[in-house]
Amino acid sequence: MNWKKALDSMQPYKPGRSIDEAKRIYGLDDVVKLASNENPYGCAPSVRDYLTSAAIQHELYPDGYAGGLRKKLAEKHGVDETSLLFGNGSDEIIMIISRALLGKGVNTVMATPTFPQYAHNARIEGAEIREVPLKDGYHDLEGFLGAIDGETAVAWLCNPNNPTGNLIPSDTLKGFLEQVSENILVVLDEAYFEYITGSEHIDSISWLEKFPNVIILRTFSKAYGLAAFRVGYAIGDPEVISNLNKVRSPFNNNSLGLAVAEKALEDEAFIEHCRNLNHEQRLRFTQYASDNKLHLFDSETNFVLIAVPGDADDASEKLLQQGFIIRSGNALGTPGYIRVTIGSEEQTSNFFKAFDTLLQSEGSAV
Ligand SMILES: *Cc1c(COP(=O)(O)O)cnc(C)c1O
C-alpha cells in the first residue's frame, strides 16, 4: 500500500506501565501512578455523584455543537460562543490544527523538548519541523522569531511547558506576540493553566482581541480530573475557529463527556482546592531537591522534572520496584531527569522515601 513516507520513521504512542501490570510484574500490592499528570484528588464530588445517576440517551448521537458546554464556557471566559472549538481531548485539536494548516512546503516551529504531539502530527502532514531548544527549561522566543519565516504556518507554545513545567513570563509572551507575523497561527497550549499560581501571570484570553492569530488550548483532563472522558477545547478568533471546524469530525465528543465537563464547571471551588493542594506539594518537591542538591526545573504545573543520580531509566526501574510509576526523562528528551506527577501529601511523602533509596545507593552501584 502507498503509505505516507513519514510513517516509516514513526512509532505508535507507547503508553507506560499500567498500575495492574506493575502490580503483577513486581508483586506489589500498592502502586501509585505519577506518570501522566492526572489529578490525584480525582474530579469534583458533585461530578462523581452525577456520574452514578447520569442518564445519557445512548441511542442518540451526541450534540455535535456541544451546545450546553459551549454556553457555559463562553460565559465563564467572557467570549462569544463562536470563539470555541471542542475536541476529543486537546490532543484532537492539535491534530485538527495540523490537518488544517500543515503540509508539504510549510514549516512549523516549536520548542524542544516539548509536548511530542506537535511534531508527531506535523510529521504525518509532511511539514518541516523546526525545533528551538529550551533555555533552562524556558521557551527561547527570540530563537522562535529567528526560526520563523514566510513559510511558517504554526508556532506551538506549550505554556506551561511539558515536560519541564516552566511558564513563559507574561511580558515576554506579549512581546513575542507583538513581533510575530499575524499570518502565523500561534498555539498556546495551556493544559496546565489551572495549576498556575504565579501572581504576575496574565490570563491570555484577555489578549485574543488584540491578537486574532492566537489560539488557546485548555482541557478537562488534568486539573478537572476527567482525563477518561476526552474533552478539550480551543478559544480563538471566530474566523480561525470556523476554519478549524471544517476539519473537525461531526460528533467528536461523546455525550457523557460533554455532560460531565459541563457539570464540572459548576464546582470551581474544587479546582481552586486542587491548585492549592498541588502548590503545597510542589513546594515540598522544591525543598526536597534543594536539600539533596538535585536540579529541578521551575514548575507551574502538577508535575516536576527532577534530576536523578545515574541513568533515568535505571532510576525509573528502581522507583517502579517500590510502587511508583513515573516517566523517565530518557524518553522525553531530558536524560538524567524523571518527570513526576505531584500526588497527594501522603503519596509525596512516600515518594520521597523511595527517592531516598536512589540517593543512598548512589556510588555503591556495581
Ligand atoms: C496532557 C496534555 C495534553 C492533552 O490533553 P488531552 O485534553 O487529554 O488530550 C495537551 N497538551 C499538553 C501539554 C499536555 O500535557
TrEMBL record:
Keywords assigned: Amino-acid biosynthesis, Aminotransferase, Histidine biosynthesis, Pyridoxal phosphate, Transferase
Name of the top EC class for this enzyme: transferase
The keyword Amino-acid biosynthesis is annotated on this UniProt entry: yes
Superkingdom, taxonomy of origin: Bacteria
PROSITE patterns: AA_TRANSFER_CLASS_2
EC number(s) stated in the UniProt entry for this protein: 2.6.1.9
This protein's pathway: Amino-acid biosynthesis; L-histidine biosynthesis; L-histidine from 5-phospho-alpha-D-ribose 1-diphosphate: step 7/9
Residue intervals of the Aminotransferase class I/classII large domain: 30-354
Cofactor: pyridoxal 5'-phosphate
Reaction(s) catalysed by this chain's protein: L-histidinol phosphate + 2-oxoglutarate = 3-(imidazol-4-yl)-2-oxopropyl phosphate + L-glutamate
HAMAP family xref list: HisC_aminotrans_2
NCBIfam families hit by this protein: hisC
Subunit relationships: Homodimer.
The protein, known as: Histidinol-phosphate aminotransferase
